[in-house]
Amino acid sequence: MRLRSIGLLVTLALGFLAAPAPAEAQPTGKVYRIGYLAMFPAPPGREAFLQGLRDLGWIEGQNITIEYRYAHGRLEQLLDLVAELVRLKVDLIVAVSPQPVQAAKEATTTVPIVMVAVADPVTYGFVTSLARPGGNITGVSLLLPELSAKRLELLREMVPKLSRAAVLWNAANPFRALDLKVAQAGARALGVTLQSLGVRGPDDFDRAFEAASRERTRALITLEDPLTFTHRTRIVGLAAKHRLPAIYGLREYVDAGGLMSYAPILLDNFRRAATYVDKILKGTKPADLPVEQPTKFELVINMRTAKAIGLKIPQSLLLRADQVIQ
To answer: Radius of gyration over alpha carbons of the chain, in Å?
Structure first.
């Protein structure tokens, strides 16, 4: 009898050792509910975020559920959408771009908020500092306003004696007004005058580019925003129509036919956001998670677009480019 008991214990022990270990990202077997709030659907970004979660063991429909809410460009809907997420008692809210972050910030001080694709979270008042966010908000930033001066430098290298450029931005977004001041300061330091092309909706794009043509503006930069990003194909088409050399804040514009971009990798921003979700669901407080800044930037040049508008790209730029689209 004693031998049989010993044998049974050995068998059970071996069986336990042979059994697969549970995934680290599945504490207590609870199914967590995540709110996902954005101005517009952005399939590539969302898929990058979900892939980041899967890499960490979080599988939608298994150990997490995700409540997707999109405002479709209507600012007045954001507060209603985030209030709905709070009523659903989500464990965490992922907010994409500044306006959804602001709406989530106004709706709750207790539900953790992970921000994605936010240019300057300190200036916007979302966090106390990058190293010590404080409160219930943390996440990843894009540093887009600070890069405006660098983009103007690249444009000036491409367009000799550039003294005047236009900046296309969403005037309906108060956060872009803050970014515009940063861009103007950078332009003044370079001796470049910026013509403001503020738009409030897609119907304003034609008028904005016509204004640039009337003022004989020689180049264009953009301040990235859900509105402009959603309509990036139209924007690059108008830049080509007006033969306006343009540099954009995200490479997706170049993929859509734009001339040039100098930017962090947007999809990395979404993938990195998944690491914040992982840590918060495992018990780390948002206030203890420093805001992450991008560390890699890429210069992408579209030679087909350059040829179409009759622009010769200096060899010095081509040699520095991370990718040249032929």
So the answer is: 24
User: pTM, whole model, 2 decimals?
Assistant: 0.82
- Residues 178-201 have pLDDT tens digits of 889 988 998 999 999 999 999 999
CATH code for the part of the protein at 145-265+297-325: 3.40.50.2300
List the domain boundaries for the chain. 25-142+266-288, 145-265+297-325
Residue 9 above 80 pLDDT? Answer: no
Distances (CA, A) of 185 to 88, 141, 250, 278, 315: 44, 21, 21, 38, 29
- DSSP string over 155-184: HHHHSTT--EEEEEEETT-HHHHHHHHHHH
Sign for the CA dihedral angle at 205, 210, 213, 214 comes to negative
From residue 173, alpha-carbon distances to 199, 200, 226, 227 in Å are 10, 8, 10, 9
Residues 6+ apart with CB under 8 A from 146: 120, 182, 186
CATH number of 25-142+266-288: 3.40.50.2300
Is residue 31 within 8 Å of 64, Cβ to Cβ?
yes
Torsion of CA 81, 86, 91, 93, to 10 degrees: 30
Q: Decide if 25-142+266-288 and 145-265+297-325 have a common fold.
A: yes
Structure tokens at 130: 């990058």
Count Cβ atoms below 10 Å from residue 130 Cβ, excluding itself. 15
Torsion (CA) 36, 39, 43, 46 in degrees, nearest 10: -30
Q: What is the DSSP string of 213-250?
A: HHTT---EEE---HHHHHTHHHHHHHHHHTT--EEESS
- Residues 21-53: tens digit of each pLDDT: 444 445 557 999 999 999 999 888 999 999 999
The helix (H) or strand (E) run that includes residue 33 is strand 32-38
